[in-house]
Records
---
Amino acid sequence: KNEVEQSPQNLTAQEGEFITINCSYSVGISALHWLQQHPGGGIVSLFMLSSGKKKHGRLIATINIQEKHSSLHITASHPRDSAVYICAVDLGGSQGNLIFGKGTKLSVKP
Amino acid sequence: NAGVMQNPRHLVRRRGQEARLRCSPMKGHSHVYWYRQLPEEGLKFMVYLQKENIIDESGMPKERFSAEFPKEGPSILRIQQVVRGDSAAYFCASSPYQNSPLHFGNGTRLTVT
């Protein structure tokens, strides 16, 4: 069983829709990261959080430590949001030694 | 302030050759991390370095792979005697201090023929 599970694996949405991507993990963590990997392959760090909720523009990330679950929400989705979204957890060992989910591939249609 | 720079962007090597992948962290960042993304698989941690020190290499294959981050110059990930299974995208990230968000480079795509 993977320590980090993401759902759904693939997601197709119409422009303007509200999108939710989920991440569940089975171990204790010190922090959780949400990353965006563009079709060209580059990776952008969206959020790093250890509790509560963070917001940046149209993106919102929440985490529930007790339930070992995090969600990434995209409001008013746009075709440029099409990418793979990756959840990664930090077990609190050495910095950067993350365990990654397999990613959720999002396609937003105009 | 330039982001994390990786080069080359694409690298083709024949089996048995050496591959050297370079990563220049963002200015002011002294923590460097390397990750590997095999085709159709998720990212995997390889190694964490600070200037002149390997802090955590628990994700590095025991043979043929090495990494360094010298006092001057970029971090280097070196793969000796490459095999087809080494074909992957290799990403570098950097951060200014511990427990801070990571900044990723665009990756080096290694193809072994």
Note: The mean pLDDT of chain B is 94.
---
Amino acid sequence: NAGVTQTPKFQVLKTGQSMTLQCAQDMNHEYMSWYRQDPGMGLRLIHYSVGAGITDQGEVPNGYNVSRSTTEDFPLRLLSAAPSQTSVYFCASSYSRSTGANVLTFGAGSRLTVL
Amino acid sequence: AQKVTQAQTEISVVEKEDVTLDCVYETRDTTYYLFWYKQPPSGELVFLIRRNSFDEQNEISGRYSWNFQKSTSSFNFTITASQVVDSAVYFCALSEAPGRSNTGKLIFGQGTTLQVKP
């Protein structure tokens, strides 16, 4: 059981480049989300999805795009990278929003540096 | 709006000392969940506990205990007889109530870095 898998673990980009952080879960979870972690700020929600075909913005969505074409995958796209997007990104999933079973399982994280 | 505050940025203790990590939250919901997560130096996020707002009983799990007090909007975490392996960043988090249009979103505090010295 792999849980939540994120790739890549590390990435260095130049300002203006685009890239996609991949996230996949094999637990048949309905809910998936992306957080970013910055020093002194905890984790902040970027985008989330409550099921295939449904996505919504979190607290800090600007500069990021998501889609949820399957239950398993929830990629995060950086459209034009900026130094302010240097951060550690975590993907998370949980299995049932309707029962309130909102214990998030996190991926291992992706450290992104934008020069 | 929901908010979680962990006022202690960093705590340093010597092994075997007891340590309490504070968490204060704000919410207008009458039903909600509170969480603690641990982030060891390796970087992953590990779930420790979830507590429903209706359950104010304290919980103990080995050397870990949690004190939930609705009257003061606090959900504090105590480690008894701390060990070097407890060194980590600890996050407190809050989520909205289940059973509504619940998205499972968590609001995290800023985190408390605990260093346990041998």
Note: The two ends of chain A are 36 Å apart (CA to CA).
---
Amino acid sequence: GAVVSQHPSWVICKSGTSVKIECRSLDFQATTMFWYRQFPKQSLMLMATSNEGSKATYEQGVEKDKFLINHASLTLSTLTVTSAHPEDSSFYICSVLPRETQYFGPGTRLLVL
Amino acid sequence: KQEVTQIPAALSVPEGENLVLNCSFTDSAIYNLQWFRQDPGKGLTSLLLIQSSQREQTSGRLNASLDKSSGRSTLYIAASQPGDSATYLCAVGKETSGSRLTFGEGTQLTVNP
């Protein structure tokens, strides 16, 4: 498998601020990482595919200027929620794909007040 | 657009009972299908991966089947235990290597001692 960590695990912020979430692949060099969002009582929705050294690929309906993704190394991808609003409060999870099974991080819970 | 549905949404059973969780998908052109487990507030743990050419996969007390033509998969849990209590998610991968997963909303399982 693969071990994936996320930081922070919990974040509370004021409306209008920006929040950065880190996703690290600890034992696998990930050229691609995936970012998902999960609202309460709903399933995971793929937001974007993070590509090392190039631009991320965003799913339809996801604002690329609001959710900035940087994948500067083979072990780290960051998701920045810019000018966060209460409706951005959610559980954000990243994953890596060493072969054909995706391995997920523990998630980051964001609460925007 | 792929849609994944899981039935039932919630299930409560006594310890020791065998149970079946159901997953259906609308587009049979899938690359693979995965079953995950999610504990409250946590990330996902991969349970079983079935390639589109396979009919079933087994791991311990878990058995997953796939009928691609009818767009259905089942997860069978034998001799359920309280530790099996979690939300079980089904996800289908459309593209090569199983990236870009589409998730169902999950079945919340409670196994009572």
Note: Chain B has no helices and eleven strands.
